[in-house]
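Support reply, case 0932

Customer input (verbatim):
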Amino acid sequence: MIYSDNYVAASHKARAFRTLLPSLFLITSLYSSAGRAELPADNIFLQVQQLAQEQLAQQAASAGLLEPLFQVTVVKTTRVMPACPVRVALEVQDSRSPQRMRFVASCPGTAGWRYEILARASISAKVAVTSVPVNANTPLQAGDVALERRDVTMVTDSIASLAAVVGQSSRRSLRAGEVLRESQLASPVLVRRGSAVNIVARKEQVQVSTAGVAMDPGAQGEIIRVRNAASGTVIRAVVTEAGTVAPADLQGR
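Our regenerated output:
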């Protein structure tokens, strides 16, 4: 009968489809895997990003940065990295400049490969900045400075403590909002060259003072030459405060 023949033909087609179904899934899986051929490279780029952040964290800790934050961008190339049968090795080639951190990814073995990968980073942290305009050679007061988050990617000598800048003076005038740097700050000059100073010598409970003339300028703690006004003898003295010095030979005794 025609009905029976159609039924048999349909049954054969159904069995054939069920037989081919696993193969179709396999082909689909292989095609999907081929479409993800760049996934290993993406994993390597992610590992490079993590390695760069670790390097930056170590550098920030050494520099004493306060609450540092990092943004790392791995420069991806159009080259497709071949698959590697073993774990890809990563090494730091040069991490001195955050904006040009160089890493090497390599696949060990005779048929292996080696690629250089570039990462660019930016760093922000809480640092001391001026809150008001400050004149050159003017000691900073507590109200002149504040801690604010700033980009310090290109600043290698920022300061993370307000206590470290109060009392210091800048070698140049500063605008409000400027990041304070160690290289631009100095202890204020307490003794000027040619100025009269008081030479104070202390030993145990005995204190002796005499007049002198400074032959060098000096900040607190610096050693300068001072001429005894009475005898004319030149001695080495430590600046202890404005207009006052102590013989260097007696310090620490």
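We compared this against your earlier run and they match. Two observations from our side: Residues 39-123 form one domain. The first strand starts at residue 66 and ends at 75. Please reopen the case if you see a mismatch on your end.
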